Amino acid sequence: MNHLAKLLGISVEAEGEGGTTILKTDAHTHITGLTLDQYATAKKLPLEFLRSIGVSEIPNYNGGPAVKIEYARPDDGPEVVRFRTSLEGPDRFKWRKGSKPIPYGLDHQKIASARDAGYIMIVEGESDAQTCWLHGIPCVGIPGSSQFKRLLNEFAQYLVGIDRIYVVIEPDRGGETVMEQLVKCTSRDRIWTMTLGEFKDISDIHRTHRDTFNQLVHGFRQLAIKWTDHEASEKKVRRKELWDECEGLARDPNILNRVGEIVSELGVAGESRNVKLLYLILTSRLLPTIVNAVLKGPSSSGKSFVLSAVMELFPDSATYALSGMSERAMAYGEEDLSHRFLVMYEAAGVGHEFSDYLLRSLLSEGEIRYELVEKTSEGLRPRTIHRSGPTGFITTTTATSLHPENETRLLTLTTTDTPEQTRQILIREAEQNRRTPDLNPFVTFQEWLECGSAEVDVPYATSLAASIPEAAIGVVRIRRDFPTVLNLIRVSALIHQYFRTDDEGPVVACRCDYEIVRELVLDVVSTGLEVSVSKTVRETVSVVAELQAQGSDSVTVLTLSNKLGIGRNAAGRRAKVALSAGYLSDGGTKSPKRYTVGEPMPSEVLVLPDADDLGLVCTCASQSTGSLPPSPINLVDDNSNDDWFSLGAS
Prior knowledge:
Layout: H1 2-8, H2 36-43, H3 47-52, E1 55-61, E2 64-71, E3 80-84, E4 93-95, H4 108-117, E5 119-124, H5 126-134, E6 139-142, H6 148-154, E7 164-168, H7 173-182, E8 191-194, H8 202-208, H9 213-222, E9 225-226, H10 227-250, H11 255-265, H12 272-283, E10 293-296, H13 303-311, E11 319-322, H14 329-332, E12 340-344, H15 353-365, E13 367-376, E14 379-388, E15 391-397, H16 404-407, E16 411-414, H17 419-430, H18 440-450, E17 456-457, H19 461-466, H20 470-473, H21 478-495, E18 507-508, H22 511-528, H23 535-549, E19 555-556, H24 557-564, H25 568-581, E20 584-585, E21 594-597, H26 611-614, H27 620-623
Parallel strand pairs: 5-6, 5-7, 7-8, 10-15, 10-16, 11-12, 12-15, 17-18
Antiparallel strand pairs: 1-2, 2-3, 3-4, 8-9, 13-14, 19-21, 20-21
């Protein structure tokens, strides 16, 4: 503090206690309530000034006087009032019934002055804000540190056009809470953290150094630290701390194979493709645009178990899992969803037209901005709810299709329904003394990724776009699927960044990343674009054609089940998928359904060209520390998913 005073050339001798009224009481005196005069004296704020900004006194509030603080609104929402009943104590503040906390001081005149000044200060509480206004400093108060992130994000639109947002960090637990919440503030690229040296808060500076208040505050602003610089510094330190715990995994050239092995130890049989793809998808939460997915399959096929097992490799902050939600929960919920996955263990748990609409907004726009009209004591008032993203979404379902507007926004994965897969599941369940694997390196690895940059360059993106075949270009959905492929390539490069960077430079995707992603999603993308047909659908239609050739006019689900060697539920589901695509026909039959062959299935179109056709070369060998370049992941196992092409065997 003395260093700052010398820097500014001012005196910092305290004014003493002469200007403060001390209420002296003995052990038998009990004083309740707070008058406006007591409040003004304690804060050294002029009475007339306080009255001019909407601060007044009510004579009887729960048996004593109280200071009434009116909150000006930037919109036409309901009036907000808070009462202060004492100078100290945990229960000194009370909201008027029906008042929902908003930032203090968000009226148009004050915000306009902040835009003119080019900055605004964010402080905790009303008295600090009032003090700043007295000295002509643009300021907004947040009523309690726990409200900081929510209120700053919810009302961020009113701070647009203000170049710098100075957030005062007080030297207490409240200040620590604010620092923790800054990570999730949408305006953090314009935020500068400001500490006050030996002073407790803004009011403390005013009470003890009123004459030099503006000079001192200006000096503290000059010493403020840009939040993104602070965050980068903190992450760099944290990243170094985490390296020792995850170095072995980060140096592995085939991380997805390690993922498959550890998830197998958790009890998942087969499903290696789904496991690896889910891992990439969940890691995409670090990107500006997140990949979303749906895992489909018959009942009891292990959809939720596979997903939950992969989620165990991630920190809790990566996902928010639910089994259901009310129609408006996505709008009203307060759980932070920024750079996080909302996981719904059954798509029917969304199940409302309005929640479907909110979900599409979240997936497409990266945020929810929902305007509604609320009934208040002042009548009907408009209100805007804002939930920031980007947010990923993963769900499981037994349905063959979802809402068509949602379906095109999700990458479709399908569990395996073959007898071989069922056998493997039974064997895995029968195993005794299965050890619990150490997941800490995997969780730490994800935390290590979070502390680094998520910027990845895909140098062959343009040539890949130019190589997409015309059959796919004619389908509008490719406009959504192509960016998904690029993002998965970025994630692959990100998790293998030890081999994709040079001297901590930018992460650059290699040929290996394209090969990994191509083998995982080639048929998914081709099938989604309807320029190809999955192996299970081809097999199902072929069986119906074979039975028809043998003299059956139509084929029931029972017949199909017996021929395929799978359960009726799985057989019926396969037939429904083929029916919806038009490759089977049921002739309008009810129950039991009777199927015949429908439209001809299309010839196979490989939407994503071979790496050799793109002229890609492996660059990761020269960028790694003498390590061999990673070979493509092994996608072919004894229980490969029937809904995927077995590319490695071709």
